[in-house]
Amino acid sequence: xxxxxxxxxLVERARQGDxxxxxxxxxxxxxxxLRLLSRMVKNTKEVEDIAQETFIKAYRALPNFRGDAAFxxxxxxxxxxxxxxxxxxxxxxxxxxxDQAMGDxxxxxxxxxxxLNTPETALMSKQIALAVNDAVDALPEELRSAITLREMxxxxxxxxAESMNCPIGTVRSRIFRARExxxxxxxxxxxTSQDTRx
Length: 198
Known about the structure:
Blueprint: H1 3-15, H2 19-38, H3 44-61, H4 71-90, H5 119-137, H6 141-152, H7 157-164, H8 168-190
Helix pairs in contact: 1-2, 2-3, 2-4, 3-4, 4-7, 5-8, 6-8, 7-8
């Protein structure tokens, strides 16, 4: 039985009034949702409040969950919309991403910094992470969202297309453009040529 099937069964039990079934979904996805929301909102207390509101909205909307997508994709969309509404209401700006390098499943597209446990290596790693954060922060919102969903949340292109309400080709284009923009900022630091991404 797949994760999606298990989630569907839990959703069905929760719809029938089994509160423990919904608690199991909360336990399963709470950390992931908190991690996602912390990319959008800096204050930990606010992140926790938004996550709680997201789960409340999801519980109330369970009758509308059709099961076409994974439960987490559906929950993710509710969480992002809740966070966006929160930010819009308080006129806050999006913070930078955490210290994680961008890459894809292919090893040749990953940013790899060897850890030799030297001060120079640690400094270089920190500088690269800051450069990646700055590059991602400078991206237009649709590119930043796409690359965050792919690289930080690990969603598939199909899940991203559904979450962002756009064709999969648009998702691929946005992720490509985001990676190219990040690579352009990193090339001088890494000493790589124009024809190589990293």
